[in-house]
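Researcher: I'm preparing a figure for a lab meeting and need a structural model of a single chain. I don't have an experimental structure, so a prediction will have to do for now. The sequence is pasted below. Please return the structure as tokens so I can convert it later.
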Amino acid sequence: MTTTTVDELRHFAEDAGKSKEEIAKITEGKTELTFEADGVIVK
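Model: Understood. Here is the structure written out token by token.
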């Protein structure tokens, strides 16, 4: 599990050109399930 902080999310939104109003609405961090694979089999 990884957590992206409010500051990081606001920074990403700013980089994406979001408005100040949209950025101000970001009030909670985001938790995501992440994993790293050594390889993938595609059939």
